[in-house]
Amino acid sequence: MASLGSTRTRAFLGLLTSIGTTKTQDTLKLLPFVVMAVVALIDFGSGPTSGLLPLLALGPAFASVACGLARTTVVGVVALVLCLALGVYNDILWMPRTDITLLAILGVTVASVLASAGRLRHEHQLADVRSVAEAAQRVLLRPVPRRAGPGIGVAVSYTSATAEARIGGDLYEVVTTPHGVRIIVGDVQGKGLEAVETAAVVLGAFREAAHDERTLQGVVARLENALARELSGEQFVTAVLAEISGGSTITVINCGHPAPMVLDADDGIWFADPPDEALPLGMSALKASEPRPHHIPFEPGDQVLFYTDGVIEARDDTGEFYPLLERAHLLDGDDPQGSLDALRADLLGHVGRPLGDDAAMLLLRHRAARQSSTAA
Questions:
Q1: Taking every annotated instance into account, which residue ranges of this chain make up the domain PPM-type phosphatase (predicted)?
Q2: Which residues in 317-355 are b (16+ Cβ under 10 Å) and which e?
């Protein structure tokens, strides 16, 4: 029921956004006619001395902002007709200032039609880019399963720093394998298409290696081999890999990534720093030894939050970093996805503007304790 409520809430907010956008567009389309009507009424009441006829050119000028070609042309024709009618009414039709006003309206109308054509072409191109970005996102960041085994819920959140692209250099994946549920959360150095390409390499290699390799160390080695063929210069990828194999712990290998945040059933909150520092992926030539796994307790009622540095390095207007530890209570909701959505909304509210870096979060919740108490 909580998940259904969260879904309905997101759908309702999306509906409100679309309604607000529609109302704005309708207002902009009516604005040219309102402006011309006001100018005509004032000129009609004040007589030929008002000199307001040139303001009729505002109609086609405003029409180019939101109207199509046909509507912009109609607005221009209406402005010309109003100018002629008011010129006849005020007996100034063939005076020089009236002729200049007619030429100005005609010129603005032609320019507005051309501007409207350019705007529509740009909007179509932007729509194509968005559709391609959405398709790329579905391939690169596939929907993860909402369960990672009996009683274990999964929730994800991704916010791209490039709003129109919707994807970036952060990555995540959850794969169910014969060796258990395996997870990766990572961050590619850099931004743009190059970072997206590197993220695709990492995710493709992980999805294959997670099924084939018996240990997490083997998965890391496969990722290193894949990146060695693709990366150049000093590029690298920070990542944390995890494995849930049915016990009371999560096996983790941290490759230079921010430590996961653990929220235990006794309201304890701490960061699971690795005992041995490991270099990021793509820097295998500098490694003296293989990265060693460590274990995070994962008892019934516990939660583990994986995230990228775009979360903890997000700053507000005063330069203060996002206080993730202080906001951990937002993850106490009944629904994991709803809780993570609340944390994401708080992060965006803290920044108050588009994020400067991509921010990905993945939440694991051991539900067994809550389920047993509900059954009791």
A1: 152-366
A2: eeeeebebeeebebbebebbbbbbbbbbeebbebbeeeb
User: What is the C-alpha separation between 119 and 319, in angstroms, rounded?
Assistant: 37
Q: Which CATH number fits domain 145-375: 2.30.280.20, 3.50.50.60, 3.60.40.10, 1.10.1040.50?
A: 3.60.40.10
Least confident of 7-21, 172-186, 198-212: 7-21
Domains of the chain: which residue ranges?
2-135, 145-375
Contact yes or no for 224/284 (Cβ under 8 A): yes
Render pLDDT for 330-375 as a digit per residue (tens, 0 to 9). 999 889 999 999 999 999 999 988 888 889 999 999 986 444 333 3
**For 163, what's the count of Cα atoms within 13 Å in the CB-facing half-sphere?**
5
- Cα(254)–Cα(242) distance, rounded to whole angstroms? 9
Q: Return the beta strands (E) in the chain as ranges.
A: 152-159, 170-177, 180-188, 237-244, 249-255, 261-263, 269-271, 294-297, 303-307, 359-366
The Cα–Cα gap between 180 and 96 comes to 85
CA nearest neighbour of 242 among 266, 224, 268, 216: 216
Q: Are 153 and 364 in contact (CB under 8 A)?
A: yes
* Nearest to 157, CA basis, from 367, 308, 302: 308
Highest mean pLDDT among 62-71, 87-96, 276-285: 62-71
Single-letter residue type at 360: A
pLDDT band with cut points at 50, 70 and 90 for residue 325: very high
- pTM, rounded to two decimals: 0.67
